[in-house]
Recover the amino acids of this structure.
């Protein structure tokens, strides 16, 4: 009986750890990085647009 109980507790702990890791990965993937609003290419011209 103690061996069965320890196997059950181990499997429950492993399942809880897997669920926690899955939620952590999903939270990291949903995090949006802060991106600067600066264009990479700018075209400077001598005459202004009309």
């Amino acid at each position: 009986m103690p061996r069965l109980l320890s196997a059950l507790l181990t499997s429950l702990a492993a399942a809880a750890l897997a669920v926690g890791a899955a939620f952590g990965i999903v939270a990291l993937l949903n995090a949006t990085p802060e991106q600067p609003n600066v264009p990479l290419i700018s075209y400077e011209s001598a005459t202004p647009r009309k």
